[in-house]
Structure prediction request, 321 residues.
Amino acid sequence: MSNIIYNNSSFDVTEGNSVLDTLLKAGIPVPFSCRSGVCQSCLMTLEAGEVPTQALEGLNGEQLAQQLFLSCCCYPQQDLSVRHYDPRANGVTAQVVSKRLLSQSVLELTLDAAIAYQAGQHTNLWRNEKITRCYSIASIPSDPHLRFHITLQPNGQFSQWAWQSLQPGDPLTLQEARGECYYQTDNPSQPLLLAGTGTGLAPLQAITRAALEAGHRGEITLIMGGRNDTDLYFNEPLLQLEREHDNVRCIQLAQRLSSPNANNVRQADIYQYVKEHFSDLNSHVVYLCGADTFVRKMRKQCFFAGVKPRNVYSDTFLPAN
Ligand code: FES
Prediction:
């Protein structure tokens, strides 16, 4: 058992608990979101001791130089002294432009913010110094504003607050954009397959638009899957993309339909559909965004269909209340 000193108080870390687990169990309200090393909302500063390498994965040189580490991935092997880090100190203050519902369960939040990003990257939005959530950016850099698609979780500490309380003109802190899941090919003729679930649509349609803006000529297929047709949204903008670009196909699939041909959604399983229609992915670039189970299973399926590992980009969404 090791011990951590956090902001001058001492805590025992029991077997199988991370620094984050230990502090939360002790009732310390430290910020976190994904608990799996993706969102970086649980960063802390190391004052003394050494953290395991997995607590440093994904951090950039500047963060490492600041002695930052991911508390959710830190299972200490020795005593540590750590302190609270407020990422908002390096954040950007945005202003709410508007909000609207895209479906019963998806909120679109539009912000005015001066941050550099690539279409498909993600960032953290902060409600206050304790509550933050990581969201993919749904806009592309040439759009006038930054947009996000936010799943409205029942009792969601961020999402429900954003829907019920945020008003146009309100300030909101966000961090720099991160992530490798964005349009990056030096071959504009290469076919692209983009597949996702839920609000994985936000980065996928943004990557599609960025590719088109960059002059991509190869076939682009965007496939969204859901359990029910009501899980799918953004039908009209997807139809418009197809109408405006001959090389784009947008396919929406659901295992169950509430009515025949509901909202242009076909009844099919996304894994089965991809297996049948994309049996050879050797020349494709593949983008996968959505639930953890979806991304892992679909990535494996795409490897079996011959996609080259360097041609797969993915972003995993983990549920956070
Ligand atoms: S990276 Fe630790 S909570 Fe997300």
